[in-house]
Amino acid sequence: MPREAAFTIVKGRWYNMVRKLFIFIPAVLLLLLFCAAHSWAAAAPEPTDKTIPREIKIGKKTSEQVEKEIPRVHDPSREAKLAMITNKLTPYLQRDLQYYVKILEMKDPNAFSLPGGFTYITTGMLDFLKSDDEIAAILAHEFVHADRAHGIIQAARNNRLSLLTLAGMIAATQGGGMAAAMLSSAIQTAIMGAYSIELEKEADARGIDIMYKAGYNPAAMLTTMERLQVERMKRAYVDPGIFQTHPDVEERVKAALKYMKDNGIEVDRKDVVQRLKTEVSVKEGRAVLIIDGKTFVDLPEGDGSIKFLNELKGRLDDNLALELAPYDVTVHGDPGDQTLIIKGKVILSENEMPEEMPSIPKIRDRVITMLADARRDNPLADYYE
């Protein structure tokens, strides 16, 4: 998950919550999941189905402590939506964990998955996201962290141990000690988002694949990170908090964008962020084509003008994209016989326009202005990459 704006006070509420969790979780239970590392330590660090019962056990225990520290929100409508999205994503994960999403009452945007797949998302994150596609991006990313046991892998790396060495050490200690401390580190990694850039990129890439297979727009993985970049800049001179230690969002955005292009996945952000939305309405005797709440063209009311605007609306819906460059929108022909072209497709011809329509060059100027306005939410996005 792109989480560079997910924590505004790393020494505040999240920090205290995580610290309390590890006071309450018994060390003997903490040892269980790291003992599971023995099942896959002799080979590459790939989780197996053999460890699932232990992962679920520790995840369930930890989730109980999470809900003691932060109130859970029971919102049937939101919970039903999260369940629907989860059910679409989970068939494309590699292991059958407990992928169940709960909502926490907190204004800071955050989401995390515990061992076993137990996943939380805050009300602040749900308010921050603009579409089901963006919710799917956050959940897919977090599910991959659990599916690939990234918390355990990161804890082993943090302590400069291979999983094979870790398993041997655990077998020798026969108790909590260092093994329990490292599992505590694994859970803290999950909650605080302290994964390495490589693990984050893996979660982004696998998340993109899962979204694509599930029928969601993978561009949402980009839009969430791009908007979080903006949040990071807003906080740079106030309380940078965790932003000081998470400078990798730009690298992740570039990697995700490259991954999509290398795999032939179209980048189309507009529906994900709910921009370039068109509608035709009648107001005070005028037929009006509106884009993102602003008047684009208005004509005297009448069946002919309404039909014309609906046809124009359909062409714009099919061809407008946040990724359009100014040179993609052009005017061809001489005055009296001009056409508006978007990426080689005719959008509007002068000979079909009713009276009172602005000229084709003025319509082009309005398209360019409208595109610039729509991009303001994500000004750091590399739309022309």
Written account of the structure:
The protein is α+β, with helices and mostly antiparallel strands. The chain has two domains: 13-262, no CATH class; 278-377, no CATH class. Helices cover 50% and strands 12% of the residues. It has 14 helices and ten strands. The strands form three sheets. Strands 1-2-4-3 form a four-stranded mixed β-sheet, sandwiched between helices. A three-stranded antiparallel β-sheet has the order 5-6-7. Strand 9 and strand 10 form a beta hairpin. The model is unreliable at 1-12, 19-44, 162-176 and 237-247 (pLDDT under 50).
List the keywords.
2 domains; four-stranded mixed beta sheet; 14 helices; elongated; disordered N terminus; alpha+beta; about 375 residues
